[in-house]
Design goal:
Two copies of one chain form a homodimer.
Chain A (H helix, E strand, L loop, with lengths): L7 H24 L6 H8 L3 H7 L5 H4 L2 H14 L6 H9 L4 H4 L4 H13 L1 H28 L10 H22 L6 H9 L2 E3 L5
Chain A binds a DNA duplex (30 and 30 nucleotides) through helix 3.
Chain lengths: 206, 206
DNA sequence: GTCGAACTTGACATCGACTGACAAGTTCGA
DNA sequence: TCGAACTTGTCAGTCGATGTCAAGTTCGAC
């Protein structure tokens, strides 16, 4: 058993948060993201606009907010990968954490429209890309530490780790595009595998 | 001779635009991007806030606006690359268009602080990444057309072109980071070359 | 049970980016 | 020189986001 009762307050907070997010998603799908006002969302759940911002720091977070938590987990997974493992493989295993959010039973119905909204709304796409970039920054630090600990540190101005990490994330994005282009048939995991075999690091170990 | 006098109105417009941008840059460097109001910029050049928005659609464009024009040129260069050329090489040659903006004599003094501002300001970074993404979308289309014209089209759901293009842009970003991390010593062109040798497409021709 | 601290909420005000509308002035060519 | 086209400032308004304050509401110590 994990933490069963993480405080009543926290539980109701999560519940309200979920309610807001779901109302927002419904409106976004119905009218579009830009066309939906935070006031509209507030009205839909019967609270003030001010209160919506008490649960979500920005309107963007109503859609891409949960990603921050996943990103933390991904970073943890990456750090726990064995030091001798090829970087490309470490990245692939890190992306595994994303898979259940899409491939788990019943998940596709939610994930597909969300991804379509993100990729078709400029400001949301920008926000998403920025979050990916932050994660890449952290991954870069992690891999440099790992290399240093293994006695083969990268020079500060060596583009290698960032380039490899960036290429891996580019494959992730290509996988998302391909998955959507194919009408979300097949598993997301397979899409990632396919994308990550089209590109490869030149020397993948340290 | 190119177009020597593209209309007086257009010339003065460009001049005013440049004046606004330079005033903005000065303020951004001095106080930071978020801390500078569009009203401040307007006051600095002695016009109304409304008029600044007549020359630049958004505050972001005061910094990353010129990139749109360069992106058009890059796309044109990419399309003019020979059909049989390896994609990775085509991308590298496309990036050549960026080089003079940084490596040309006297350019570094301007380019370096700008890049630092972009990479350290979340909203600017997001905007920049989104513009790169748009360019990648267009490049994806271009390369698919090129492959189709050569009699070896990609399947709609094939992640290959996007993955390779994305990897190339990841190297570009890694090059920028590395260049900045090294204090902008050396040429940007060399930084790109270094980054683009760390990763490579698996099969690079169609 | 009760009381006070901690938390939550709505209401109001403000800021900054941005947009529409209008009126006044400037420029340019027929 | 006259009128169309363009530019500008001003004003008002929208929307996302933040600070403040005065109600409640909840929760634990007593």
């Amino acid at each position: 058993m994990t933490d069963s009762q993480p405080d009543l307050r926290e539980r109701t907070r999560r519940a309200v948060q979920k309610e807001i997010a779901e109302a927002a998603h419904a409106l976004f799908v119905e009218r579009g993201y830009e066309e939906t006002t935070v006031g509209d969302i507030a009205a839909a759940v019967g609270m003030s606009q001010r209160s919506v911002f008490r649960y979500f720091p920005t309107k963007e977070d109503l859609i891409v907010g949960k990603f921050d938590l996943v990103a933390d987990d991904m970073l943890r997974v990456l750090r726990e990968r064995p030091a001798g493992e090829p970087v490309w493989e470490s990245m692939r295993r890190t992306f595994d954490l994303l898979v259940p959010y899409v491939d788990a039973p019943g998940r596709r119905q939610v994930a597909e429209p969300m991804q379509r909204i993100v990729f078709s709304t400029p400001t949301l796409l920008a926000g998403y890309l920025q979050k990916l970039q932050l994660l890449q920054d952290a991954a870069d630090t992690a891999l440099r530490e790992r290399a240093a600990a293994a006695g083969a540190p990268y020079r500060a101005g060596d583009p290698t780790p960032r380039a490899i990490i960036g290429a891996a994330f580019a494959c992730l994005l290509a996988a998302q595009h391909a998955w959507l282009a194919d009408g979300a048939e097949g598993t997301f995991a397979a899409a990632i595998d396919r994308a990550m075999t089209t590109v490869t690091p030149v020397t993948d170990m340290r």
